[in-house]
C-alpha cells in the first residue's frame, strides 16, 4: 500500500460519513435551487430520495442490472415520476407547496407499511454494491461538485433568468406569453432528478 492511499481511501467510518455528507449536499442543492431561484419551497427531499432509491433497488434486484446502469436509469425515471406526481401542485406557492411536498413521503411511507409492499418496513434486500471501493467513495463527491457548478451555470443562462422572474413576479412572466407552469415543471424535473440520483447512489452504498 502506498503512503498516500490511506488519505485517498479512508476507513469504513469516514467513508460512510463522507457519503452521507455528499447525499445531504445533493439535497441541499435541490432545496436551494427550488427555493432560491424558482420560489418553490420543497420539503419533499425524502420523496425524491425514496423514489430514486426504490427504483434503483428494483432495477438491480428484479432485472439484474448493474448498479452503474441502475443509478442513471433510476435518476431519469424517478425524476419523471416525481415531476408527474407534483405537476398538479405547481400552481401552489409558499407554505402550501411546502406542505404538499412534505405530504408525499409521509403518505407513501404509510402505504408501503400498511400494504407490506416493496419489502415493507425491512426494505428491499439483496442490493448489489458498486463494483469497487474507489467508485463508492468518489462517485458521490464528483457528482456533488459537477452538479454544484452545473446549477450555478444554469441559473445564469436565459432559462435561469426566466426562473428568477417566475419567482419574483410570475404574473409579469405570464403577461409576456410564457407558460410559467412549463418552466416550473422543468425546474422541478431538474431538482427531482438530482434528488433521485442521491437516493439511487445511497442504496448501493449501503
How does this model look, in words?
The protein is built from eight helices and no strands. It starts with a helix and ends with a helix. By secondary structure, the chain is mainly α. The radius of gyration is 18 Å and the shape is globular. It has helices at residues 5-8, 12-38, 45-62, 67-86, 95-115, 133-154, 158-175, 180-205.
Short synopsis of the structure:
The chain is mostly helical and 206 residues long. The chain has helices at 5-8, 12-38, 45-62, 67-86, 95-115, 133-154, 158-175, 180-205.
Mean residue pLDDT: 88
What general form does the structure show? globular
Distance between the termini: 25 Å
Biggest sheet details: none
Annotation, overall tally of beta strands: 0
Order of helices and strands: HHHHHHHH
Detail the poorly predicted runs: 1-5
Annotation field: number of helices: 8
Amino acid at each position: 500500500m502506498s503512503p498516500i492511499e490511506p488519505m485517498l481511501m479512508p476507513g469504513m467510518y469516514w467513508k460512510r460519513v463522507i457519503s452521507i455528507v455528499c447525499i445531504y449536499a445533493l439535497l441541499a442543492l435541490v432545496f436551494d435551487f427550488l427555493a432560491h431561484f424558482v420560489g418553490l419551497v420543497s420539503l419533499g427531499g425524502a420523496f425524491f430520495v425514496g423514489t430514486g432509491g426504490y427504483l434503483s433497488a428494483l432495477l438491480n434486484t428484479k432485472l439484474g442490472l448493474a448498479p452503474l446502469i441502475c443509478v442513471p436509469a433510476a435518476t431519469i425515471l424517478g425524476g419523471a415520476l416525481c415531476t408527474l406526481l407534483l405537476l398538479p401542485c405547481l400552481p401552489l406557492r409558499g407554505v402550501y407547496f411546502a406542505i404538499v411536498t412534505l405530504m408525499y413521503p409521509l403518505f407513501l411511507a404509510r402505504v408501503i407499511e400498511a400494504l407490506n409492499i416493496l419489502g415493507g418496513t425491512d426494505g428491499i434486500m439483496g442490493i448489489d454494491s458498486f463494483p469497487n471501493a474507489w467508485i463508492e467513495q468518489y462517485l458521490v463527491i464528483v457528482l456533488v461538485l459537477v452538479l454544484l457548478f452545473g446549477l450555478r451555470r444554469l441559473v445564469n443562462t436565459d432559462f435561469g433568468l426566466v426562473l428568477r422572474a417566475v419567482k419574483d413576479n410570475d404574473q409579469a412572466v405570464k403577461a409576456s406569453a410564457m407558460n410559467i407552469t412549463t418552466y416550473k415543471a422543468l425546474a422541478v424535473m431538474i431538482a427531482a432528478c438530482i434528488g433521485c440520483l442521491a437516493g439511487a447512489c445511497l442504496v448501493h452504498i449501503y
